[in-house]
Amino acid sequence: MVSAAATLSSLHNIQHLIFSTKPSLLKPIASLPRIICSSSSQEFNISFAPPKPKPKQQTQFDFSNQEGQLFIPWIVRGEDGNLKLQSHPPARLLHALADAKTQNPKKKIKKKSVGVKKDDAPIAKAQISAGPERTYSKAARRFYNENFREQPQRLSKVLAASGVASRRNCEELIFEGKVTVNGSVCNTPQTRVDPGRDVIYVDGNRLPRRLPPKVYFALNKPKGYICSSGEKESKSVISLFDSYFKSWDKINSGRPKPRLFTVGRLDVATTGLIIVTNDGDFAQALAHPSFNLSKEYIATIEGVVNKRHLIAISEGTTIEGVHCTPDSVELLPSQPDMSRPRLRIVVHEGRNHEVRELVKNAGLEVYALKRVRIGGYRLPSDLGIGKHVELKKSELKALGWKN
Q1: How far apart are CA 255 and CA 362, in angstroms?
Q2: I want to staple 219 with a disulfide (CB 3.0 to 4.6 A). Which of 145, 162, 372, 388 is the partner?
Q3: Which contacts (CB < 8 Å, 24+ apart) does range 251-254 have?
Q4: Mean pLDDT for all residues in the chain
Q5: Is residue 267 among the annotated active site residues?
């Protein structure tokens, strides 16, 4: 009883102290010292707990306690299907990064450069620059289309370049309504088309988008062959290129075969150099008299050649109402293996049968006639009869072709 009375007296004194003290002098309850009431028989341990902190919302992150480090929350979808925020990356991303680091890097395959001769380098570059493949970027293809792509050409010219027929026969096909452009029948050969973009059909057959490359050949024409590209002619000089066309698909897979024709003509009995190509502009420039391209012939004569014959040939003759005069006439030295005299005659106009008419007008008869030079290009001495060789760019310049 005595201890209980002492305890109640202590509590009464504390209450009096708290309520009698001024409010400004009151200390926070949380900072009051722990009060221990002790007695001989029982002890009381009284303490005041601090206030509970407010619970933080799950959608907010407090980064104020991080020392110099910023954490970016990750938005992930939980197993329940709802989106939530978390301070560490998702597990699948960490696994993906780990797998990516362990993969072997792909080795770059270096393309072997094919050796090209110096004379063939421009032609090889022209074939390479025929158009950018799909591996190039859009900007590169756009630059090519704006600066290097061929402009739209006449429909008849495109058909002839694709190997359909000659330009004249292509015009007849257009007039007959056998050619359609983008689904509509086209009856005008002068229509400008682009085979790479326009859809062109001839007799129901689709015209290839890519035109064949420009090719140039020097042919040693044999006797008995005519300079015609018609398929009905069995002895056309174009038939001498059958082996070339048979190997075309192996060398140029996916590209149409070129339609070849001769630059100018040599009569059936004349042999020697003749140019074969599929470039119409090139053929027109070389064959036109305004190009002023000299041509050298070796004429084997029946009989005896005198000085008066040479004077008569140099004075010229009239052919088709035009007076034609040769550039030069020369009697070649006789050779032991050749009993007949030979004349070197150089002309530049290239009229029909011009050399034969000059010799005939002088009172002589031609036994054999061979062309050995056109412009600055001479027939190779090792080129057999009926054989052909592809011309290089330097040889095209010798012919006078600047493009």
Answers
A1: 52
A2: 388
A3: 252/212, 252/213, 254/210
A4: 77
A5: yes
